[in-house]
């Protein structure tokens, strides 16, 4: 896919939640360590308020093995080449486009 992304950035849990609450966001790449807390707080907010967004959310961490036992979270480990991050989102959007096309043809 050749998709142009409009990127919104946040430096803290509070900023991230404000963006998610007020903007149309289709995908989330969230650092595990934010200035005022953990990326898990952002993911928990997404799970409560925008659960459909969890499927296209990736937690990015430099920790070798975060003690997280959730299967609904995708991880990428730092350093993350930009192409790897883009591939993650491109694949998800391609999958959604295929699913949407199939859904439209089902009677």
What do these coordinates show?
- By secondary structure, the protein is of the alpha/beta class.
- Helix content is 41%, strand content 16%.
- The chain has a 3-stranded parallel beta sheet, with helices on one face. The chain has a two-stranded antiparallel ribbon with strand order 2-3.
- A hairpin with a 2-residue loop joins β2 and β3.
- α1 (13-22) packs parallel to α2 (39-49).
- The radius of gyration is 15 Å and the shape is globular.
State the oligomer: single chain
Name the average pLDDT.
81
The counted number of beta strands is: 5
Q: State the helical fraction.
A: 40-55%
Instruction: Note the beta-strand portion.
Output: 15-25%
Poorly predicted runs are: 101-107
Summarize the structure.
The protein is an alpha/beta fold and 107 residues long. Helices cover 41% and strands 16% of the residues.
State the main characteristics.
107 residues; three-stranded parallel β-sheet; disordered C terminus; single chain; alpha/beta; globular; 5 strands; two-stranded antiparallel ribbon; 3 helices
SSE diagram, text form:
Blueprint: H1 13-22, E1 28-31, E2 33-34, E3 37-38, H2 39-49, E4 57-61, E5 74-77, H3 82-104
Parallel strand pairs: 1-4, 4-5
Antiparallel strand pairs: 2-3
Helix pairs in contact: 1-2
């Amino acid at each position: 896919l050749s998709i142009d992304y409009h990127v919104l950035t946040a430096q803290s849990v509070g900023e991230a939640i404000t963006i998610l609450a007020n903007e149309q966001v289709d995908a989330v790449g969230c650092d595990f360590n934010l200035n005022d807390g953990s990326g898990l707080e952002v993911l928990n907010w997404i799970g409560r308020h925008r659960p459909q967004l969890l499927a296209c959310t990736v937690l990015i961490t430099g920790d070798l093995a975060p003690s997280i036992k959730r299967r609904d979270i995708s991880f990428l480990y730092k350093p993350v080449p930009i192409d790897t991050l883009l591939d993650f989102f491109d694949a998800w959007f391609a999958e959604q486009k295929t699913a949407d096309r199939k859904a439209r043809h089902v009677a």
